[in-house]
Amino acid sequence: MNRFGSFPRRIAQLVILLFGISLVTFFLLRLIPGDPALAILGSSYTKARAVAIDATLGLDKPIWTQYGLYMGRLFRGNLGFSFFYGQPATTVIFNHIGPTVFLVVYAAVMAAVISLPIGFVAGLHRGGPLDQSSRVFFTLSFAMPAFWLGIILILIFSVHIQAFPLSGFGRGFFGHLYSLFLPALTIALGFSTVLVRSLRAATISTLQSEFIDTARMKGVRWRRVLWKHVFRNAVLAVVAVYGVNLAYLISGTVLVENVFSLPGLGTLLVNSVSSRDYPVVQGVTLLFAVLIVLINLLTDLTQAALDPRVGQEIGG
Amino acid sequence: MTAMWAASPSEVLYKAASKAAGRRRSVARRRLPLIIGLVLLAIAILAVTFAPLLTSAPPNKIDVLNPLAPPLTPGHLLGTDQFGRDLFSRILYGGRIDLAIAFGATSVTLVGGTIIGLVAGYSGGKIDNLLMRIVDLFFAFPFLVLIIAIIAMLGPSTFNIFVAIWITSWVAYARIMRAQVIVAKKQQYVLAARALGYSRTRVMLRHILPNTASAVIIFSMVDAIGNIILAASLGFLGLGVQPPTPEWGTMISDGQNYMLTAWWLTTLPGLAVVFVGVSFSLIGDGLADVLRPGDR
Question: Can you tell me the ipTM of this complex?
């Protein structure tokens, strides 16, 4: 059987989910108490603009017609007009996407680099010094707010040691790598908690599997068993955890961008809430949700590609 | 608390099993995390409740002579902020809001999500399908982003933090509970109860719920940590409690402006969050040990 056999069903689910996401983001604006046109325009309220907003949103029409209008605009890439920036919301969001994508990828890679060795070794030497100390460390870091951890890292590495800049995005690829080191580390430490825990558990259960005994009985060298059998299988089990928790990374980004004053989507989102720039809030929320759905799809596909056993279950 | 669990059947079974396995770890030692966690949490709750008795100055009292005093200054145990307001007092009063959100938001979503998961898992069919598609939908959004979006629309306030968490947070409980119920539904004791002709409600509440609730209860401790951190995060972003009311996240955010000269303004309120977080985490670990000893 083709390992991507249930792919069409997965796509159908995806379409339903995207439809649901569009419904939620559409109804978000309905939560505003009072007149949406007044709220959207804020201080730039004029009678003429209010009439224009009413016309584009179709506020005088029945709710499902309004939703139809909303979807129509979405398909044309129109997320509404940001009166705060005086630009279409799509343009505003597009201008802020770079730092966020860079930070998320950076933090995801860093989390993998931190947690793969720690989780694997902690699982191999259960109850050993590394296992115990990583458990204490990650219990503490689980209870730490990401933004606070970021500030503490700034205090240590920017104020006392002065190894990294206080804030900013830097110039060029290596400038970004350097400037975003602390922000990425902040997110990665939080993310590693989950990864280390699940990799440790996966390593322990893999070690107890019968195929490990078989490999040893065949006389395969222990080092080779560890690498080819234990590590590979344990990491496979963690791929799903990694994908599911990428949503966590994005939440972390929102906070950490604000701590380090990075010009990304998280800062944009929070600033837009303060300036009551509703179209931008709506657009960023929509974008993040679509990103997560796509990441989850990618995770499933990666798993199916790496592990033939998963293929059959994917549709479920 | 200790006496309450002493005679539970799972505990007796566990004792027998661990003897057989030759494990020496005593039950008392296994309960240590739970006891330490409860004590730490009790300290936090008492300190916050009796804040007026423990502090020398009200949280918003301005002392112009002592701005940015470091910790251990006479009269100000943990120092003061830029207005000379007592940091210890602000941390205790600020904790009232964070702890209220941890308990108020978590308990409502625990109960609501558990009931929804119970009904979905037990009924199956269309109801289950519909409810689980809604759950999937909520999981598609990054939690913090969805909360921020809801607060953006409702307006920033303490009450709206509760509302935003109530709207979004039940989904995790519903998903966990549903998975448990689907397994339990096929077991002998449920089949027996149904064969006796008990009503749906009775089977769900009297038979399935007591046997499956441990998973959601343990998860609620993790969720409480999440909600404390969320409350602080929203305060930090300026979307939660509005100044001058003290709240841990808002205090950290205020202190960030004085980071270079007054480290205590950001560090200490954060440690308060970690303190409460660790206590919930220990309680969660301890409950997991006591309620489902087989898992370890």
Answer: 0.83
